[in-house]
Amino acid sequence: MRMVERDLAAEARRFEPVIRRVEEAVLPRLEVIGPGLIAAPARGASRYWGGEQ
Predict the structure, then answer these.
(1) Is the dihedral of CA 18, 39, 33, 4 positive or negative?
(2) Contact 40/27 with Cβ under 8 angstroms?
(3) Is 38 exposed, middle or buried, given 0-12, 13-18 or 19+ CB atoms closer than 10 A?
(4) Which of 14, 33, 38, 45 shows the smallest number of beta carbons within 10 Å?
(5) Is-contact 36 16, C-beta < 8 A?
(6) How far apart are the first and last CA of the chain?
(7) Do the beta carbons of residue 45 and residue 26 sit within 8 Å?
(8) Which long-range contacts (CB under 8 A, 24 or more apart) does 27-32 make?
(9) Average confidence (pLDDT) over 22-39
């Protein structure tokens, strides 16, 4: 097994297109917590998409 240090800058660059797509297609209001992790208000999205399911 080989261990390497995380490259947070590279992770952020790879996650950026995902964030853009989510903002455009699903939720215009979101907060990036870190690479691979976002926070978003559920109420508006839930109403828009017809429920949480």
Answers:
(1) negative
(2) yes
(3) middle
(4) 33
(5) no
(6) 40
(7) yes
(8) none
(9) 85
Tokens of 9: 């800058």
The encoded tokens of residue 42 equal: 């559920």
Cβ atoms of residues 29 and 40 within 8 Å:
yes
Among 37, 17, 41, 19, CA closest to 29:
41
Q: Are 28 and 34 in contact (CB under 8 A)?
A: no
Q: Is the pTM of this model over 0.70?
A: no
Q: Which residue has the higher pLDDT, 8 or 45?
A: 8
Neighbouring-strand partners of residue 32: 38
Tokens of 18: 């995902």
